[in-house]
Amino acid sequence: MNCDNVREKLIDLVYDELTGDDARAVGEHILQCPQCREEYEKLQLARSALATYRAGEPKGLKPMVRSYRRFFLGLTGVAAAILIAVGIWVFQEGTTEPAIAAGPVEIKRLNVSLTILSEPENWPGYYPRQWRGQMEVQMANVPLSDAQAFFRHMYGGGWRGLALVRDKRIVRNIKRGVTSVRFTDVPSGILPDTVRLRSLDDPDGLTILEQNYQYDLASASAVMKRYVDKNITITFKKGEGASGTLLSFDAQTLVIQPKGEGPRNISRKMVKSIAFEKLPVGLLSKPTLMWQLRNQAAAKQQFEVAYLTGGLTWRADYILKLKPAKVAPKGKPPVVIDTADIVGYATVTNNSGVTYENAQLKLLAGDVNLIRPEIKLLRFNGAAMNESREGRESQFKEKSFFEYHLYTLGRPTTIRSAETKQIELISGSGIKMQRGYVYDPTVNPTAVRVVSEFKNSKDNGLGKPLPKGVIRLYAPDPEGVSTYVAKTSIDHTPKDEKIRLPWGFAFDIVCSVKQVDYKRRGYERYHKWRYDLRNHKGHDVTVTIIMRRPKTTYWAKCTKDGKDYPWHIREAGVWEVEVPVKANSVEKIIFEYKHNSQTGGGLKSPWDVARASRP
């Protein structure tokens, strides 16, 4: 049905006199054709104006006005609206209240709130990794249901984000009784089953009869699917063309059947363009929510639309600007205390498909639990940081929320589609950090890792809950220019907890480990290891040795120069020994232990026992 045929039937549609297949065909055409839809809305406005005029006219004039209904509406929608509006003004001249003509439904955003969740721990471990290929093959060969399509979008490539959207709108010209409202400003990642609509002015006066999420978008592939068994025209890159019935298509080939000929395979590399007769019925230019409502309230109301959507993510990115200690380490054992400033940024990425103007932004930090789906088969410039951030007020207000932490931005912000935005989240200055050296042979058999450890407390210049994220370390080079050094990550860390940041490996400290004795008798094993620690620095350092031993160990001994040396158990199977090493010297540590897989276990360090018994 073309535009001329549709416009001839618009008057009947406006007065509900069009039924059956004609009504459906005209309705589908209006959804796809902006010009006809505008004409239809103008005719609705004209009818509303005529109805208002008839409601106030003398009774004797009503038949005359009825007889001219077709005359007025037979004109264009604009002309009809103008003539009727003039007639109403003439008739009502001198009255105290002007008549207000109801037009098409208008929806305008008042404000929007976004609550974006952080990535859950170990995502996407909600299904075995080895199932992914089989799942993708299965989904690629069957039509996708709503659930399958969203599952593939959200889970097929890892975490795609999840956010709660609360969108407040003002709706005008919504008629009483049963009516339909189209809501087009919808993200492509929306979860349709989470959409909730309510009237803020009169919740009891508005009832939702039906809600439909229409997402069959007019993509190239969707149009091609609709044109299978229909005629298309192809233009080749060399200039000639061909037309015929489209039989099938894929990413490489088109199969058409010209009239009176057999099927013909055409490589898509040869194709310049494909012409279609018209846009297939039912395809949309953007995702749309369609509501069928029963309205018993006013024509002007405030709505709130709430839903969950994918495509919105956030993460924490930290910049740590280090001020290394310039004096030699002091104490026994020697300790190096550095000073640092830290700035944390919330990096928000919007791939949901829509723009959120002047949104109230909230960020939820914590490992939120999500139901597992069932399966049947930027770089930052550290030198740009301010030297001091004392007394600087954060843009985000942090509050505890259930078992999580919620960060609320104190001002509205616009998050555009396909945009990554960075906003300062937290800051701290003058943080005292203890520099240490850790030797773990399971990480590197010869190198010693540099570790910075500090307490996240207010007395130490911070004392704020830190969301999980990446920390990038900047330190001054010999010329004093702040230079990128390394990066690491932290988990969600509450205040007053210690944070250990592993960086790279020390250049001037080398360690090695060697097994010097081993005995075996039944289920019992005896091991003896020697650790050599070599310090080529010009000052003393303390190296912490990490030893990983069987949990069935029941006896252990550590010696240095033939004398017992203190060690302690950090956790089950992990022991630590702190060894001071003087400048340009070597220290040797001997560690012995026994374990029995049948009767072993329960080992306690004598130093841990002595420390626990202190008053």
Q: Layout of helices and strands, plus pairs?
A:
Elements: H1 3-14, H2 20-32, H3 34-56, H4 62-67, H5 69-74, H6 77-91, E1 106-117, H7 132-140, H8 146-155, E2 163-172, E3 177-183, E4 196-199, E5 206-214, H9 220-226, E6 231-236, E7 241-249, E8 253-257, E9 264-267, E10 271-275, E11 288-295, E12 301-309, E13 312-323, E14 336-350, E15 356-365, E16 396-401, E17 404-409, E18 413-415, E19 419-439, E20 447-455, E21 469-476, E22 482-490, E23 498-521, E24 524-535, E25 541-548, E26 553-560, E27 563-564, E28 568-571, E29 574-581, E30 585-596, H10 606-612
Parallel strand pairs: 1-15, 13-21, 19-25
Antiparallel strand pairs: 1-2, 2-12, 3-11, 4-12, 5-11, 6-7, 6-10, 7-8, 8-9, 13-14, 14-19, 15-17, 15-18, 16-17, 19-20, 20-23, 21-22, 23-24, 24-30, 25-29, 26-27, 26-30, 28-29
Helix pairs in contact: 1-2, 1-3, 2-3, 3-6
